Structures are given as C-alpha cells and as structure tokens.
Amino acid sequence: MTRETALRRDPDPTRSARARLPDYSSADIDADLRWWNAANYLTVAQIYLQGNVLLRSELTPSDIKPRLLGHWGTSPGLSAIYTVLNRLIKRTESRWLFVTGPGHGGPALIANVYLEGTYSEIYPDVGRDEQGLLRLCRQFSTPGGVPSHVSVETPGSIHEGGELGYSLAHAVGAALDSPDLVVACVVGDGEAETGPLSASWNSTAFLNPARDGAVLPVLHLNDAKISGPTVMGRRADADVRADLHGKGWEPVFVEGTDPRDVFVQLTEAVGAAYEDIRRIQTEARAGTDRPAPRWPAIVMRTPKGWTGPRRVDGHLVEGTHRAHQVPLSGVRDDPARLRQLDAWLRSYRPDELFDDRGAVVDDVSVLAPDGSLRMGSTPYANGGLRREPLTLPDPAPYSLRIDTPGTVTYPTTTVLGEYLRDVYRADRTTDDGGTFRLFCPDETASNKLDAVFEATERCWQLPASSDDDHLAPSGRVMEVLSEHLCQGWLEGYLLSGRHGLFASYEAFAMISASMVVQHTKWLQHAAGLGWREPVSSLNILLTSTCWRNDHNGFSHQGPGLIDTVLSLSPGVVRVWLPPDANSLLAVSKRCLESRDQVNLIVADKQPHLQYLTDEEATTQTSAGASIWHWAGNESDGAAPDVVLACAGDVPTHETLAAASLLREHMPALRTRVVNIIDLMALLPPGEHPHGLSDAEFADVFTTTVDVVVAFHGYPRALHQLLHGRPDAGRFHVRGFSEQGTTTTPFDMVVLNRMSRYHLVLEAIRRAGADSEDAERLARLCRSQLERHHSYIRRHFDDLPEIRDWTWA
C-alpha cells in the first residue's frame, strides 16, 4: 500500500498560525530514547523473567517464568506516547490523564509508572532497586500478583481495557467539567473495530471547550490483531482521515519504523495538538462566538511488537500478528530461543539504564514530571481525591401526599425528575460548571424526567435550529442514542471524581450490561487498595420496564440486567425495586449519597398507584423488606396462612389486588402482605451487607408459611437469592417469563401468569384452603381470566374493573 508522507496535514487557512515549538535537539531525542528503552526493557522483563532481572549473567531456564503471559505487541507504541507526553508535561506543566485502550498493554504502563517513581511510592515493596525490580517482574501475571491488563492496581489508570471499545468514552467522561485536564486516549486499531468505539468518535458534538477539558485521541495503527489484520490498519490514510474528519477531528499522521524519526514526528504532533487545544479553549473561554471546533487527533502507524524479535524460526514476527502476545515462546526448553531472548533484552542496554544497585539512572529518572503532574500520580485517576459530596435536597418537599394507600395514581418517575432538577440547581455550579450530570439515550423526556430542563439543557455543540427543544452548549444533560456511550461517559466522570445517573429503557440497558460487569469488577478490586479513594457510585435507573412496554412490544421487554447484576460482587451491587414515587425518591437519594457501589434502580415511568408517605418510604427503604399491615388481614398475633410478597411496581399492584380479593371472598384466610424494596435484603446476612438477619427474615416471612411472590424480573433470579434461607422451597415466585408483545397492560401480567387471579389461585393452593369460599373464589378467578381474554380482543382495552382498580 502506498502511503502519504508522515505528518500529513490538510491546508486550512482558518487555522491560526502555530507558534514555533522549542527545538527538539539530538540530545533530547537521545534522552527520550533512553527512557523508551528502559520502558521496553521492563516490559519484556515483566513478561519473561522471574530472576536475573538485570542480566548480571547469561539467562538460564531457571530465570524464565514457567507460564509466559502478557502482551508485547502494543507495548512499545504505548511507551513511546508516554515518553513524549512526559516531555510536554515538563515543558508546559499541564495536567494529563493517560487512558489506554489496548488494555493488554499493562506491562508497558506499569513500566512507565515505575520509571517515574509513582509505583514505588504506592507500593513500597516494589522499590527502586534490584530487589524492587525483581518484585516488579515476579508479580506480573502470576498468582498473588497483578493482572496483565492496565488494571485497577495500576496507578494512573481509570480504564481497565479488558473488554475493548470504551476507552474514548471514558476519556471524554473524565474531561467533562475538568477544564484544566487533557486526556491522552490511545485507541488500538483492533479496538477501533468495535461498535462502542466507533460511536465514541461522535463525542466532539458534546465537548464544550469553554468549560470542559480536552481529549487527544491517538489512533495507534499497528496493522494487526491477535491473529489477523485490522480494518483501520489496512485502510489508506486518506480514508482514515476522512473518517475522523467527518466526526469532528483534525487528524495528524505519524508513521515510521526508525525510532528517532518517529519520536521527532510524534513530539511535533503532540506539541502542535496541545497548542491547538489551548487555542480552542482560550477562544471559547473568552466568549468568542465560533462554530464547534475541530479537535486535534493523532494517527500513529508503527510496527506491532516494535524493537522486538524480527523473525522467529524463519517467520516474520515484528509488524505482524505474531507479535501480539509473547513473540518468543518455549524459551525454557529451547536454548536457541533463550539466547534470542537474552539478545533481545540486552539490545536495550540495561547496564546503561540501571546503576549497580538496580536503580534507574539519574539522567533517565529526571525526565519524569514532578509530583502530581506525573501521569501515574494524577488525582484525576484517583477520583475520590477530587470528589466532594453532592448537595442533595431533602426529598420530603417533592413527595406525593398519601392519605390512603393505593388510591392516588401518578407517573412514578415524574417526582424524581423534579428532584434531579434541584440537584442540578444545588450542585455547586454556574451555567457552565458542576459535578453532576444525567446521562440518557434520547429518553429523558420519554422517561418523564424532563423537569431537569427547567434547570439545564441538553448538551449540544453542533448547529441548532429554532425547532429544537432544550439544546445549548452549556447544557448538562447528556443525550446520545448509544447506551455504551452514555454509560462510558458516566464511568469516566465518576472515576475522575464526580456524580451522575444513567437512565435507560430497561430492555436496552442490556446493550451495555458487560460494561456494568467490568465496572463492578473494578470497584470490587479497588476496595482492596488502600490508596484508591472511594468514588461516587454508578447509579442506573431502568424505566420503560417490561410490564408496561405493552405499547412497544416484545423487543422492549427484558428485565435481564437484574440477573446480570445479582451474580456480581455482593460488596458492590445493590438492586432496588421501589413500588412508588416516594420510595423512588428515598432510594435515589440514598444511591446518590453512596460510594463504590453499583446501584440498579427499577421504576416504571407510567402512572401507577402510590402507597407510601415520604416517612414510610424512607423507613422501608432502610428496612429492605417490610410487612404492609394495612394490606393483610392478620389478627390476634396468629401466624398467617399464606404470605403474599411483591417486588416491583406492577407486582405490588397485582399483589394488593390479590390481597383485596382474598379479604373480600375468604375473610377467614389470614394473609400477610410483604413489600420488598431492596432485593439484596433477601440474601443471607453473610452473603450481602444488606441481607436480613435470620431473625428479621423470620419476622417478615415466618419460618414455615408458604410465600407467593410476585417479582418484577425472571423468577430464577429471586430463587437464587433465597437459596440458603430456611425452607427456601416454600417460596413460589411468579415473574416475567418471556411472554407478551403489543397488548394491554393487564394482559402482560396474565400472559406471564402473574395477574391477581393467578396469585389468588396460587395462594389458595399453597394455603391448603379447600372450603366452599375457596372453590367459589377459584371459579371466579378462572372466569375472570376467560372474560379478560375475550374482552381485550373485542374492545382493545382492559376490563373497566381492572383498568380502574384502586385499593379503596
């Protein structure tokens, strides 16, 4: 393929003339190449060595790890970018965060953070001497050590990278409301093939140079994935340029195989990009009325596995997919390969990079920036250091007045929108700053949270028309039709010290479910690192739920994120099912105050009956599961004959209707109604911090009585929580069973066998009731189900006594 010459730029007379960059002398190049050699040496040593880490003698098989794990291919490019950024930071004293899309470049990032001194400050046992180097190498990808990814254990990291596609979204999230920060985001060309990364290039439409920091993407094209070529790596430069240019970026190309030449190009490109970023921001912050800027970006083409073995056993390795992981395998057993590894390591001249004690020599270590300007030490990568608690209003003034439970109908999420409006107002903010944002895939108004637009607008940097609603460059509601992008932005925002909420249609939150898994894993491991300060929780609101998406159909019905979350770390995850607006307020305040958690809140946006006063909602949110004495007919302290339990808004509605039928037609049957707000309360206390004690569980559910449960999600999810409780087989769960499409609201619960009539029939059976009253009620339930089936097909609406039912 014929490529253009390096450092290509399209002529553009509207761009300001660049100030001449300081000379990058031959001595400067030599110094940077020494740092780079040291980083490359430490990268290879981490992958291979368990002894003789400074090559005091020839390598022997006993010096080599028995299992060779790690990824070499991307590492030299990452270290080159890190090296050049160090020089820029020292010259400008600017603040940078380094986000590494190729997450398998873990050994390179560890090497650079070690060279700058941060690693040893955080992990004193990995000192700056030969013994520390030995620990550094022996810990890498070994039991009890550190993973091969740029993991939570890596100082300076907010992005694990184990699952590709989210680096640029995380980078943009960190830049939002961080006006002094520049985020260098390395995007691997394999990662560039993913859907989330492709969407992330559109973030230029949302970055506001007047109040936000900036992101400098470096698209690293080394032409290969694990076993084949990459799409972007094989595209012509003109096509890559056109792709990025169309998304609002001004790409500059750096290309080559000779390190000196590449370092000159890369240093100029980074310096010019930094000048462009500061020019764009200065003009915006001076109030200059200009169109949305075209942000600088760098496209860097260097060989995969650069400076590694050129050929192995006659096969080309450098510059191919064979360099992706461990380019020299079988080193312990093959003397020729062992000698080749020895030569490869010595090519970096470690004897000139480390002194007799094993410390990095002064003329290398001096290249690191100072203090918190080091990318491994930046507080932006340890967000708890920057986090300040949100100013949260008291929910009471926003709550609905409830005189009699189950008689008022109201859209549940509407009051949360009013509350979030004033969270925005109370946030220590001007029109163009703050620490809280709502992220939502084009659904803020649909989810009835649109009261927030009384306090702010939708963030938008592109042209707007007079017909648009609530668009402004200073807007702080982030809407884009990509669940990946919304959640990725929020994760970057949280991990760099701020607060937020991700609201999504329930079924489509599954699109980014794997991101929830990865974030939970991050928080789980961060909890064991004393140096990582707690960050604000990832709060996810699921609305437009399966039970009330009868108008959209089967595609919009799916409560599977509950199942996904329940299997994750109990120290991190929480699942909340508030039955009404006031409990949603109580739950939301609690979640916004929390740290280091993943809170999944499920609350439908449609009008629902309302039950709890604000005081009751707060009390029952703390309790997790509570007896609704007003709904049952227990008396004289006797045990109930059957317990009706519910978790979720529609399940609560149907359970109360079932309780009403039982009270009316079988008054002698003692029923108890239990509402579950905090799903994790069902877990045994040793398995979750919110788990009810054995005594509390018995007080609520008894120890012997059968429990008929109406549950928002898949029944199996609840069964797994109850495992370990005494006589868990007495819990009989009805929930979503993948039935229903475009139909009536009540038909949804009928099709999934969770209607009031199904619950009554189950309660009669489980209570062992065989009276004439029981038989009459059972006939009534079956008759009503048949009547419902005919009625909705004739009238296209639910029976009036169903549609208009209230507790009163």
Automatic annotation (TrEMBL):
Name of the top EC class for this enzyme: lyase
GO term, biological process aspect, one: carbohydrate metabolic process
Keywords, alphabetical: Lyase, Thiamine pyrophosphate
Pfam families the UniProt entry points to: XFP, XFP_C, XFP_N
UniProt domain Xylulose 5-phosphate/Fructose 6-phosphate phosphoketolase C-terminal: residue ranges: 605-807
Gene3D superfamilies: 3.40.50.920, 3.40.50.970
Lineage top rank: taxon: Bacteria
InterPro entries: THDP-binding (IPR029061), Transketo_C/PFOR_II (IPR009014), Xul5P/Fru6P_PKetolase (IPR005593), Xul5P/Fru6P_PKetolase_C (IPR018969), Xul5P/Fru6P_PKetolase_CS (IPR019790), Xul5P/Fru6P_PKetolase_N (IPR018970), Xul5P/Fru6P_PKetolase_ThDP_BS (IPR019789)
Chain coiled-coil ranges: none
Family classification: Belongs to the XFP family.
NCBIfam families: PRK05261.1-4
Full protein name: Xylulose-5-phosphate/fructose-6-phosphate phosphoketolase
